[in-house]
Amino acid sequence: MEPRLQEDSASWIFFVHAAFAIALLAMTVGIWLLPDPLWIKGYLGMGLFFTVSATITLSKTTRDNHEARKLHHRLVEAKTEKILTEYSK
């Protein structure tokens, strides 16, 4: 396992989780308290939860792609170094 260059503090991780939970709760309560029929509230609720799901998926995919690019660049750099080392002999 590669060493981590950046470690998030426990307070930052708590803040991120709390902000997500508060935002989700506030939006859910806001939809529930709308003076509209239940089917409209349900539609808005489904839209909210699909948006949250898509956001989580997008952030995970972006992170995974970033990690893959870092690994790819390290491999290319190692191959280049090996070629240069063999050439300079």
TrEMBL record:
Stretch forming the signal peptide: none
Residue ranges of domain YiaAB two helix in the record: 12-64
Keywords of this entry: Membrane, Transmembrane, Transmembrane helix
Transmembrane segments: 12-34, 40-59
UniProt cross-references to InterPro entries, sorted A to Z: YiaA-like, YiaAB
Highest taxon listed in the record's lineage: Bacteria
Protein name: YiaAB two helix domain-containing protein
Alphabetized Pfam families for the sequence: YiaAB
Any GO BP annotation: DNA damage response
GO CC entries: plasma membrane
